[in-house]
Amino acid sequence: MKHLTFYFDVISPFAYLAFERLPHVLAGLSHSVSYQPVLFAGMLSHWGQKGPAEIEPKRAWTFRHVAWQAHRDHVALHMPAQHPFNPLALLRLALACAPDGSTPGRHVCEQVFRHVWCGGADPRDPERLAALAARLAPAHDPNGDAVKQALKDATALAVAKGVFGVPTVELDGRLFWGVDSLEMVAACLRGDPWFDGPDWDAAAVAPPGVRRKA
After folding, report:
1. Domain boundaries in the chain?
2. Most C-beta atoms within 10 A of its C-beta, which of 18, 26, 63, 195?
3. Rounded to whole angstroms, how far apart are CA atoms 150 and 38?
4. Which of 39, 15, 19 is nearest to 107 (CA)?
5. Contacts of 130 (CB under 8 A, 6+ apart)
6. d(CA 69, CA 27)
């Protein structure tokens, strides 16, 4: 059985859509999944990028695009009252629900994702956060040093592996970025020979080109 790691931040609508689609795309394939919360803002800072919501035309297109994908896939998606927002409390809550040294289960991640993307409310509303925490009953203190460090460590480890965005799926040391890469993950799980031949590595080698000045 192959094992996948699904890196996500609940701030990303694409991560939410990928989370909802993953079981359907991989149906019938032998696999297991770990759901790993990471801080997308930390990745953006490391790689020197802006988030999609920080560039206004890109922000508008992003939400049109995810609205269309949700409509196509019959996934409930409502824009939260505030976006972007600080997702730290939700990411820490998810990790606080995980067993020691492990990652949160799918049910916990589903509840946290839907807290953000279903209903159109404010993800940071204190009463809503308290109600979510009460439902999930975390085994650890979401505001404790251990949980905070676990999120930092998970983000740093993901970056060290080359993860630059969410969602990203890791399979056999390969990284698949974006909701539209899930079919590639399924093909890899099926044993498509393209992934074991020279094409996977060759496709990543672009010819030298013009470099933008800093």
Report:
1. 2-203
2. 18
3. 9
4. 19
5. none
6. 19
Neighbours of 207 (CB within 10 A): 4
CA distance 212 to 188: 35
Q: Tokens representing 45? A: 């800072």
pTM of the model: 0.95
- Give the chain's length: 214
DSSP state of 77: -
pLDDT tens digits along 88-100 = 999 999 999 999 8
| Second CATH level (architecture) for the domain 2-203 | 3-Layer(aba) Sandwich (3.40)
Position 55: which residue type?
Answer: I
Residue type, 173: G
Q: Which is nearest to 19 in space by CA: 123, 122, 117?
A: 117
